[in-house]
Amino acid sequence: MSISLRINGEERLLDVDPEMPLLWVLRDVLGLTGTKYGCGAALCGACTVHLEGQVVRSCVTPVRRAQGKSVTTIEGLSPDGSHPLQRAWVEQGVPQCGFCQAGQLMTAAALLKEHPVPTDAQIDQSMAGNLCRCGTYCRIRDAIKKVSGGGR
């Protein structure tokens, strides 16, 4: 079955199983490897992408749900790493191993779109579904606050 969707602003027509998880379409079919496989059960957030601007876990989202819709991955957030969140991530020293960072950034971008100057509670609530094994949560919050103008 052909699936039509817009990935990072580019129209794509894909001949894939409609039940294939969006994650595998992105990584294996399209070669967009910035989105990571973590748990496969929507528990860790490493696979987070935007579907029509909303945060979704691509590991459990069948590609059929993206039919005719817009998908944004970390590569679409900013191809050259110049998005304000990406710059703040580096300035605040957020990444350690880096594995969870694409999902963290995509979740943070959606948060700032909805709440341009989020409270600590809004940041904590929004980011709670994204796990970081390195424990950089305080630096993640600082980076989000820096971009929002509500931080140091």
What does this structure look like?
The protein is of the alpha+beta class. It folds into two domains: 2-77, Beta-grasp domain (Ubiquitin-like (UB roll), Roll); 84-148, [2Fe-2S]-binding domain (DNA polymerase, domain 1, Orthogonal Bundle). The protein is 36% helix and 15% strand. The chain has helices at 22-29, 74-77, 84-91, 101-114, 120-127, 137-148; strands at 2-7, 10-15, 48-51, 54-57, 70-72. Strands 2-1-5-3-4 form a five-stranded mixed beta sheet. α3 (84-91) crosses α6 and α4 (101-114) crosses α5. The chain is globular, with a radius of gyration of 15 Å.
| Distinct helical segment count | 6
Widest sheet: strand ordering: 2-1-5-3-4
Query: For this structure, what is the CATH class of the largest domain?
Result: Alpha Beta
Query: Low-confidence spans: pLDDT under 50, at least 5 residues?
Result: none
CATH superfamily of the largest domain, please? Answer: Beta-grasp domain
Indicate the proportion of strand residues: 15-25%
Broad structural category: alpha+beta
Number of domains: 2
Query: Which term fits the overall shape?
Result: globular
Radius of gyration: 15 Å
Descriptive key words:
Ubiquitin-like (UB roll), DNA polymerase, domain 1, five-stranded mixed sheet, single chain, 6 helices, 2 domains, 152 residues, alpha+beta
Put the structure in a nutshell.
The chain has 152 residues and is of the alpha+beta class.
Secondary-structure blueprint:
Elements: E1 2-7, E2 10-15, H1 22-29, E3 48-51, E4 54-57, E5 70-72, H2 74-77, H3 84-91, H4 101-114, H5 120-127, H6 137-148
Parallel strand pairs: 1-5
Antiparallel strand pairs: 1-2, 3-4, 3-5
